[in-house]
Amino acid sequence: MKNKYMITLCCLITLLLCNMATTSYALTYRFYHITHNNAGDASIGEDQLSFELTGYGNDQMLFIFNNSGPSASSITDIYFDDDTPLLSYKNFFGSTGVGYTIGAKPENLPGGETYSFTANYSYDSDSPVQPNGINPGESLGILFDYVEDFSYDEIISALADKNLRIGIHVQGFASGGSESFINSPSHAPEPATMLLLGFGLMGLAGMGRRTIKK
After folding, report:
1. Is the pTM of this model over 0.85?
2. Distance between CA atoms of 130 and 141, rounded to whole angstroms?
3. I need a surface site. Which of 16, 53, 60, 213 has the fewest CB within 10 A?
4. Quick one: CA torsion of 44, 25, 161, 111, rounded to 10 degrees?
5. DSSP secondary structure code for residue 126 in this structure
């Protein structure tokens, strides 16, 4: 009887962890380049620029844009192609040295028209744009409210279906050039999420083996 209750408990924990993996933990997205000004710069951007999504309470989502470095580069403009819309700007949270305001110039992602990218809202690093952009080792968080009855899972689905797309314009490369990028629709759970989920599954498997032996 005890084993029966333990198996039930493990099942509940595993289901909870699965739910947390899709609704509570950070998801990391990469970028792919859409301009081809310099192959080396495009590769740098794809290697070290990303953003994370985290549910922030029941009605907000936090986007954290990261530049992992080490190569010189600066995210100076962030664009959202969100026709619905799904999100409404709330606040900025930036690393020291990162300064942003609402409304990017140019208004649309450079090169975005080739990919039918039309920005509905955007954000621009303060002047001087390159020093105040997201440089190696820095990050910028943008907090949004969900519009109407939208939710975390619907935002994730919109990114996967390309109904919501994120674009960035990057300057400050050692070459002196600039490149534009759009998010890749795919995402991956943070390692901590997978570790917790693994523990839950291993616990369930262990209880199952114990029951069979008896």
Report:
1. no
2. 17
3. 213
4. -30
5. P
Question: In which residue are the tokens 């309470």 written?
Answer: 57
175-204, pLDDT tens digit by residue? 999 999 999 987 765 554 444 444 444 443
Q: For 11, phi and psi rounded to 5 degrees?
A: -60, -45
Q: What is the largest CA-CA distance in the chain?
A: 71
CB under 8 Å to 200, separation ≥6 — which residues?
10, 13, 14, 16, 17
Q: Report H helices in 116-177.
A: 129-132, 152-160
How far is Cα 125 from Cα 129, in angstroms, rounded to an integer?
5
Q: Which of 36, 117, 125, 124 is nearest to 83 (CA)?
A: 117
Let me know: does 182 contact 112? Beta carbons within 8 Å: yes
Report the alpha-carbon distance of residue 17 to residue 170 in Å, rounded: 37
Element (H, E) at 58: none
- 191 burial via Cβ count (<10 Å: 0-12, 13-18, 19+): exposed
Positive/negative CA dihedral, 58, 60, 61, 64: negative
**Cβ proximity of 173 and 44 under 8 Å:** yes
Q: Are 7 and 211 in contact (CB under 8 A)?
A: yes
Report how far residue 74's alpha carbon sits from residue 52's, in angstroms, rounded to the nearest whole number: 17
pLDDT digit string (tens) for 25-36? 689 999 999 999
The residue to which tokens 């795919």 are assigned: 186
| Tally of CB atoms within 10 A around 205 | 11
